[in-house]
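Sequence in, structure out. Go.
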Amino acid sequence: MTRAVTPIAIYGAGGFGREVLQLVRDINAVRKTFDVRGFIVDGGFEAPESIQGLPVLGGVEWFVAHGDARLVIAVGSSAGRSRIAARIDAVCPDRYTTLVHPRAWVGEHVVIGAGSIVCAGALITTDIRIGRHVHVNIGTTVGHDALLDDFVTLNPGVNVSGNVALGRGVEVGTGSVLIPHVGVEEWSIIGAGSTVVRSLAANVTAVGAPARVIKVREHGWQDTGQS
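Output:
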């Protein structure tokens, strides 16, 4: 019996978009699973006509017109990814695929939501819930009983210890460490190389070892395009 191949498009034509294309190619090298149709970009975003032999298809209108295709949002910013998903969900919801690299290790009792991406070298142990549109980048570890809500971004080399809870849209910078039992509330940002040793409130930026709050944003900042 021939196994069905899923047509997909990659939203985002930047560096992470190309990394996601490689991720899909690595999946297909093990078993042909996806047919990548090309890249979708925001209006006004400058992109070449093709990337690594695949076309830049245009905006969301292409996705709307091709009802057989599924989508993954390869945009590194948690806030940016959330705004894109809101626009897509308004016209064609529930058409996302989930990507897990064949060289990621994902244990038993791990739930991964639609649209999420788990990159090569990620280690995800057990009894973990990962929400929708979460990015777990290369070389990242996630310990037991962790909770990663929708739109969380773990950049390369992040170490999330056991019983850590990351709220919606939390973004953790490259090489950061979160010790056991800490929580970071929604839409906060952890700077690269930080060590989180105590829980953090929503809408803050924290940096350093130990991580200290250096900026507080207004509620809802993620919907405004602010950084």
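Check: The first helix runs from residue 15 to 30. Helices lie at 15-30, 60-65, 78-91.
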